[in-house]
From TrEMBL:
It comes from the Bacteria. This is Thiol:disulfide oxidoreductase. Residues 1-87 form the GST N-terminal domain. InterPro entries: Glutathione-S-Trfase_C-like, Glutathione-S-Trfase_C_sf, Glutathione_S-Trfase, Glutathione_S-Trfase_N, GST_C, Thioredoxin-like_sf. It comes from Pollutimonas nitritireducens. Pfam families: GST_C, GST_N.
Length: 232
């Protein structure tokens, strides 16, 4: 059994996509980040960076005690290795998949996240910041669009690289991006959206959370007002 500490963010969706594809038994433990659940001591034992998602695998391959894993990319890699699925077993295929997984972790996710913040959450609208991150998001979309030319998926067969990237393309309108400007990306996006596991994962999210994480000044402070003093 996998315990999944989860909230309905792009990084959270990555893990439900994988778990729904593989059928691994899992239990969701909601972590409402707008209410500060991510700062509870029991969660910090699993995820010391106080960010979702995180997992605890109660049946690791070595048969020993439960293994906690935090950071969405690390979780995807751990689960792929545990199941032997959605990661190639060849050297070159594995390298190809991992470099695009890390591309999402180091590029698409952080840049699109800043795009979300300055476009949708920042109290003060700063034109330079908005333009900076909208343009960088567009550049990254184009990199992925070019990569997908002549390819069904990012690294051959459907893999953890696709699962990592897809949830960050879902809110493309909030990122001020037009998917029709990126035809290869659009085709890839539509193909993943139609997968039954994707449908189940996003339907699950709708059941767990029906309100925005940032709904008042208290939730804004929880999400955007943290500094070194909040690390206990």
């Amino acid at each position: 059994m996998i315990d999944l500490y989860y909230w309905t963010t792009p990084n959270g969706h990555k893990i439900t996509l994988f778990l729904e594809e593989t059928g691994l038994p899992y239990k969701i433990i909601p972590v409402n980040i707008g209410k500060g659940d991510q700062f509870q001591p029991e969660f910090l034992q699993v995820a010391p960076n106080n960010r979702i998602p995180a997992i605890v695998d109660h049946a690791p391959a070595d048969g020993a005690s439960a293994i906690p894993v935090f950071e969405s990319g690390a979780i995807l890699l751990y689960l792929a290795e545990k199941t032997g699925r959605f990661i190639p077993d060849t050297l070159r295929g594995r390298v190809d998949t991992l470099q695009w997984l890390f591309w999402q972790m180091g590029g698409l996710g952080p840049m699109a996240g800043q795009n979300h913040h300055f476009n949708n959450y920042a109290v003060e609208k700063i034109p330079y910041a908005i333009d900076r991150y909208v343009r960088e998001t567009a550049r990254l979309y184009k990199v992925l669009d070019r990569r997908l030319e002549g390819r069904e998926f990012i690294a051959g067969d459907y893999s953890i690289a696709d699962m990592a990237c897809y949830p960050w393309i879902v809110p493309h309108e909030r990122q001020a991006q037009e998917l029709n400007d990126f035809p290869n990306l659009r085709r890839w996006f539509d193909a993943i959206r139609q997968r039954p596991a994707t449908t189940r994962a996003y339907a699950l999210a709708d059941e767990i959370n029906t309100t925005p994480s940032v709904s008042d000044e208290a939730s804004r402070q929880i999400l955007f007002g943290q500094d070194a003093t909040t690390i206990k």
